[in-house]
TrEMBL record:
Taxonomic superkingdom: Bacteria
Protein family (similarity comment): Belongs to the ABC transporter superfamily.
The organism of origin for this protein: Aminobacter aganoensis
Tagged with keyword Transport: yes
Gene3D superfamilies the record matches: P-loop containing nucleotide triphosphate hydrolases
Record protein name field: Osmoprotectant transport system ATP-binding protein
């Protein structure tokens, strides 16, 4: 658990993070979202003490993060940034093995971990391990950056706009990878973005910052349904809200009895995808198939429209 208590960072007279308190539950993915300059990065960096707070306390599993030297703290917390920050003169394998080496892991253990992470991120260890960062595409470099941040099996992973530089298709892929990694390792992840779409997609909880203040800290559904202020409402994009809400739910939760004509959709697809497919194909209903391909009912435009309404 991460407990942030009345944390403030001042530069001169300006509080760029202003009396922020929040509790982050273990094994969850929290997204910090807000406009440029709202203090997101500063808040994130106070967790691993790349920035020292002016006042307030941050506790990691009950331990004040000032009770260990900063460099030691940072070995135990993963950190991934936009543009990946890889060392250009080290191979991919050496980059990923950086912190394990500092921690004194033996060579065989480091190699096993490097190979495990590369495979997990769908980069062939034999092909990519020996390459240098400039021999990789931007998306591949970004994946190596994430692998490096995860190398020493940190319980906590901080990510600052990790997908900001990626094109939309690679970005979606990288987001899915991240969710899979989190499921597998149970890492507590805190991710900074200015993209509300990304926040809604990834976050168990979303923290909205504005001018150094934490304006709202809640689940995506709550943020969409009950934005705390006009600022949050604007950030959410009021006209988009019903679709964002549908993107949070799976088709399996809106299956109705009965059958329908034409191509079906998987129960695990999002409700938003189902609506898009129905509208695009000009149908009012379509069949739903279970994870093992069996027909289990149908999904209707009418059912989805009800789901897209503001939750009571
Ligand atoms: N070392 C510093 N000295 C003075 N001011 C700083 C320093 N670091 C950050 N700031 C200021 O603090 C404010 C918050 O910066 P921060 O990087 O936390 O914002 P952000 O929400 O992450 O923004 P962005 O989305 O643009 O990265 C900004 O106005 C920035 O100019």
């Amino acid at each position: 658990m991460i407990e942030i208590e009345s944390i403030t960072k001042r530069y001169g007279d300006v509080a760029v993070v202003d009396d922020v308190s929040m509790v982050i539950e273990p094994h969850t993915l929290t997204v910090i979202v807000g406009t440029s300059g709202s203090g997101k990065t500063t808040l994130l960096r106070m967790i691993n003490r790349l920035v020292e707070p002016t006042s307030g306390t941050i506790r990691l599993d009950g331990v004040d993060n000032r009770s260990v030297p900063g460099h030691e703290l940072r070995r135990s917390i993963g950190y991934a940034i936009q543009g990946n920050g890889l060392f250009p003169h080290r191979t991919v394998a050496q980059n990923i093995g950086t912190v394990p080496l500092l921690l004194g892991w033996d060579a065989a253990r480091i190699k096993a971990r490097v190979d495990e992470l590369l495979a997990l991120l769908q980069l062939d260890p034999a092909a990519f391990g020996p390459r240098y960062p400039h021999e990789l595409s931007g998306g591949q470099q970004q994946r190596v950056g994430v692998a490096r941040a995860l190398a020493a099996e940190p319980n906590v992973l901080l990510m600052d706009e990790p997908f900001g530089a990626l094109d939309p298709i690679i970005r979606t892929k990288a987001q899915e990878d991240l969710l899979a990694i989190q499921k597998r390792f149970g890492t507590t992840i805190i991710l900074v973005t200015h993209d509300m779409e990304e926040a809604v997609h990834l976050g168990d909880r979303i923290a909205v910052m504005d001018a150094g203040k934490l304006i709202q800290y809640a689940s995506p559904t709550e943020i969409l349904a009950r934005p705390a202020t006009g600022f949050v409402e604007t950030l959410v994009g009021a006209s988009d809200r019903p679709f964002k809400l549908l993107s949070l739910g799976e088709v399996r939760d809106v299956v109705e009895p009965g059958s329908a004509e034409g191509e079906g959709i998987a129960a695990g697809a999002t409700q938003r995808d189902a609506l898009a497919e129905l509208l695009w194909s000009g149908r009012t209903a379509m069949p739903v198939t279970s994870d093992d391909g069996m027909p289990i009912g149908r999904v209707t435009v009418q059912g989805l429209v009800k789901r897209a309404a503001r939750p009571k």
